[in-house]
Q: What sequence folds into this?
């Protein structure tokens, strides 16, 4: 059972998929301190074998930090609020199970950073993206200066980080930031279909793959390959490895247990 939240709408789909939605549609799902605390709690609680879909209720994914909440904040209060935001970010980044962002509308500033913190992104063809921080006298502070260049390349990233210009789902797909662009009506269906495919695979394998990709991408190849083997070898003694090979040879669907 998932706890009830004020700023998030959560549900379990089937047995191994979780859906979490920003639930402040009247405020374009802007991120405030309470929502950040709830995101941290959710991603720290979620079962390590669940595939999670992160989306937004209404017309927007997340329009970034709630600037109304920030109105009149002194530096100390701003710092305290940002610590809550950082907690949400790190809970997403450290989640051992796959997370798919289903970007249904505007993903601006911190909203885009949270999408980039997920493992990959499906987007509505109406989705709009931007880093608007430089137009507000600040800069990205939830990883955007690091995750965005890794997704689209440093030169393109600097153009959009410097200018605050918006870009479309079609642009994001062409650049490799988004994996798939869907019609608004089909976005959640297509994202959920992908989540079902992932959830049907051996959870220990998926978890190990996520860890190795995340660790290895920052390493030289000669250091990354031993990292891969360090995660590969323990899988050989698992129930699921034997089940997967037996199911293949017996021409049946494997039943994985995460053991």
A:
């Amino acid at each position: 059972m998932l706890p009830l939240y004020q700023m998030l709408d959560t549900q379990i789909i089937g047995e191994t998929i979780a859906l979490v939605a920003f639930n402040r549609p009247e405020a374009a799902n802007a991120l405030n301190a309470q929502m950040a605390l709830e995101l941290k709690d959710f991603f720290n609680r979620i079962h390590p074998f669940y595939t999670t879909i992160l989306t937004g209720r209404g017309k927007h994914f997340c329009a970034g930090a709630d600037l109304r909440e920030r109105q009149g904040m002194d530096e100390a209060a701003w710092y305290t609020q940002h610590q809550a935001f950082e907690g949400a970010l790190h809970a997403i980044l450290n989640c051992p199970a796959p997370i798919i962002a289903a970007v249904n509308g505007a993903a601006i500033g911190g909203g885009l950073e949270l999408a980039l913190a997920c493992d990959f992104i499906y987007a509505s063809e109406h989705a709009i993206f931007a880093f608007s921080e430089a137009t507000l006298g600040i800069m990205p502070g939830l990883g955007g200066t690091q995750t965005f260049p890794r997704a689209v390349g440093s030169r393109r990233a600097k153009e959009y980080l410097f200018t605050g210009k918006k870009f479309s789902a079609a642009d994001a797909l062409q650049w490799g930031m988004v994996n798939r662009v869907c019609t608004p009506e089909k976005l959640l269906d297509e994202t959920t279909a992908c989540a079902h495919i992932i959830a049907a695979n051996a959870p220990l394998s998926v978890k190990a793959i996520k860890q190795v990709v995340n660790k290895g991408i920052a390493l030289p190849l000669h250091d990354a390959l031993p990292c891969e083997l360090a995660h590969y070898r323990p899988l050989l003694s698992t129930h699921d490895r034997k089940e997967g090979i037996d199911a293949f040879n017996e021409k049946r669907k494997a039943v994985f247990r995460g053991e």
In short: The longest strand covers residues 8-13. The CA atoms of residues 43 and 95 lie 6 Å apart. The mean pLDDT is 95.
